[in-house]
Design goal:
This protein is α+β, with helices and mostly antiparallel strands. The protein contains five helices and three strands; from the N terminus they run H-H-E-H-H-E-E-H.
């Protein structure tokens, strides 16, 4: 119930000029489409989103821009998606388990 309430609040704030959380999910689906493995690092997802042409995520003049890894995490929190530490070879990184997105993609098709 709490997750549904947070999503309703997030969605209600979007007008026709602003990208919606669903549009962010759609862009994330594109960004992770060619990732091999079970994880995507926070850095890589952030970079891919903020470098998408004709999307507001990297436009620092836009209220919809994602200005930091923390801001990205906050945008994904209503979907129950959170960054976690994971092993990448000999190092530990923070990122997102790709399976975490599958539920959101199924619930909110683009």
């Amino acid at each position: 119930a709490e997750k549904s309430r947070r999503l309703a609040i997030a969605f209600s704030g979007a007008d026709s000029e602003s990208p919606t959380p669903i549009q962010l999910l759609s862009d994330i689906k594109t960004a992770i489409g060619e990732v091999a493995g079970a994880w995507i690092s926070s850095d890589l997802l952030y970079t891919r989103l903020t470098h998408m042409a004709d999307r507001p995520w990297g436009d620092n003049q836009s209220d919809s821009s994602i200005r930091s890894l923390h801001a990205l995490a906050l945008r994904l929190r209503p979907f129950g998606i959170k960054p976690m530490p994971y092993r990448d070879g000999d190092s530990t990184r923070r990122g997102y388990l790709l399976a975490e997105f599958e539920d959101a993609f199924a619930r909110y098709p683009d």
